[in-house]
Amino acid sequence: MTHTQTRFATTPIAIIGAGPCGLTFARLLENENIDYVVFERDANSNPTLMHQGGTLDLHANSGQQAIKKAGLFEEFRKLARWDATRFVIQNPECTLKATFGEGRDAPEIDRFQLRQLLLDSIPSHKVQWGHGVRNIERNLSCKSKAPELTINFTNGTSASGFLLVVGADGAWSKVRPLLTSAKPEYSGKIFIEGRISHGNPSYEAALELSGPGNMMALGHGRALGVQQVADRSYRVYMGLEAPETLTRTALNMDDTKATKEKLLSSTEFFKDFAPDLRRFIADAEGPFRPWPLYRMPVSSLCWARVPGVTLLGDAAHVSTPFVGEGVNMAMHDALKLAQSLLKHCKSLKDDNHKDVDEIEQALAEYEAEMFGRAQDFINRCMLSEEMFFADNAAQKFIDLVTDATNRQQEQLFSGSSSSPQGQTEQPGTQSAQYSKI
């Protein structure tokens, strides 16, 4: 294979990864006429069954704020499912159930819809498909202030000449090693994903229980979720405390029937869940996809400043999904970095002059803010994760929601309904219905 190297002499910024995070950052730069190029490992923009991702809820003070700053909120409103905030929690025996979350300002949108919305908002030639990163090399002998970085791709080509390389390439980032040796750690939790299509025998039961939103049955160290997506079909999520090797040893993801039989036949899995819940596993359609859950060590969020490189989203602070803020954190990162660059880097719009010191000021400001926010995020994820997999998880979750609802009502009656800036909204604070069956 012939090696081709391209030098981007007038393009200051390379974005690695065309997910919602990288594309949000690209759109924000596009709005300011700052040049960039996005490198993405996928061959094209078409989502595949196994890689299109699930549904995401965008929060008002993070994900939605980034969409508004990107000038895409009206288009987002057309796609968002504002009725999908309904959340049902119950125990494995189906003797305890609570419904809450209706009316929250956290509408759902499928990941592939959000990605396409962002892709459509930037020129198509700005995204280079089929460019998975093999590694990134730094020329340590260079005496110039400008970082001499060469991005080597798995397709045999390479690119250089950038003043800033932004890693938005997810949990297993190829950009991260330039900044830190830290890697994501396995959380001890894994989810297995299946589907319930419109013609599925359990579709009507899913519709009745979850409606346009989500149901989670929690307890005994396990979790079963049924969640509607944009086409009104459902995803089934089976959560377990298990070794990282579970789906390579005890469960064979290539054999859906055998996997379901094991999940339903052992008390280690879902044998002791109520029949009305077990039916969702029995009828779940494959191919099943395993989602082992990882998180960055909190202590890793403090690397020293490295010229010309930074991280966004999961590349910086991947964590477990138990506070529902992963994509919101990532899009907020994109917004904060764009704002810091605009504040400090007046020269980025000048093709003939780029000030490296200005870029470093912006990166230092962005990372200082991001570190504290990310540490708090991962700590909250760990606390929520512990609750989700507790023996009496459903009761704990319902108590949390009830307490949050009561606090909000007290604020309303005292004449103070606003929350301190940065405070995380607890799910379901706008409505809750609780029952023992």
Describe this structure in words.
The chain is an alpha/beta fold. It is 32% helix and 23% strand. It has 11 helices and 19 strands. Helix 1 (20-31) links the parallel strand 2 (13-16) and strand 3 (36-39). The radius of gyration is 23 Å and the shape is globular. It starts with a strand and ends with a strand. Pfam families: FAD_binding_3. This is Monooxygenase asqM. Residues 11-180, 308-346 form the FAD-binding domain.
Structure, briefly:
InterPro entries: FAD-bd (IPR002938), FAD/NAD-bd_sf (IPR036188). The protein is an alpha/beta fold.
What is the topology?
Elements: E1 4-7, E2 13-16, H1 20-31, E3 36-39, E4 55-57, H2 63-69, H3 73-79, E5 87-90, E6 96-100, E7 108-110, H4 111-119, E8 127-128, E9 133-138, E10 149-153, E11 157-160, E12 164-167, E13 185-196, H5 203-210, E14 214-219, E15 222-228, E16 234-241, H6 256-265, H7 275-283, E17 285-295, E18 309-311, H8 314-317, H9 326-344, H10 356-388, H11 393-413, E19 432-436
Parallel strand pairs: 1-11, 2-3, 2-12, 3-8, 5-14, 12-18
Antiparallel strand pairs: 4-7, 5-6, 6-19, 9-10, 10-11, 13-16, 13-17, 14-15, 15-16
Helix pairs in contact: 1-4, 1-9, 2-9, 9-10
- Strand order within the widest sheet? 17-13-16-15-14-5-6-19
- Estimated radius of gyration: 23 Å
Q: What gap, in angstroms, lies between the N and C termini?
A: 66 Å
Q: What characteristic shape results from the CA principal axes?
A: globular
Q: Helical segment tally?
A: 11
Architecture (CATH level 2) name of the largest domain: 3-Layer(bba) Sandwich
Identify low-pLDDT runs. 416-432
- What name goes with the CATH superfamily of the largest domain? FAD/NAD(P)-binding domain
Main beta sheet, described?
8 strands, mixed
Give the rounded overall mean pLDDT.
89
CATH class category name of the largest domain: Alpha Beta
- What is the beta-strand fraction? 15-25%
Structural class computed from helices and strand pairing: alpha/beta
Number of strands: 19
The number of domains is 2
Query: What is the helix/strand order?
Result: EEHEEHHEEEHEEEEEEHEEEHHEEHHHHE
The helix fraction, in percent, is 25-40%
CATH fold annotation of the largest domain: FAD/NAD(P)-binding domain
